[in-house]
Amino acid sequence: MGMGAAGVVRTRRWGRVVVLLTLLAAIVAGCGGRPRAPTIAVRPVPAERYPRPEFLADTAWLAERLDVPGIRIVDLSPLADYRRGHIPGAVHVWWQDLVERQNPAYGMLVDPEGRKRVIGAAGIAPGMTVVAYDNAGGRYAARFLWTLLYTNYADGRLLNGGIATWRAEGRPVTRAMPAVAPVALDDRPTNDAILYNAYDLAPRLGEPGLMIVDARTQREGLETWGGLLRVGRIPNARSIPWERNLGQRGTSVVREPGELLSAVYEGQGLRRDQEVIVYGLTGVDAAHTFWTMRLLGFGNVRLYDGSWAEWGAVNPIEPWPIEPLAVGAAPAPPGAGGPALGAK
Question: Which CATH superfamily is domain 192-311 in?
Answer without folding.
Answer: Rhodanese-like domain (3.40.250.10)
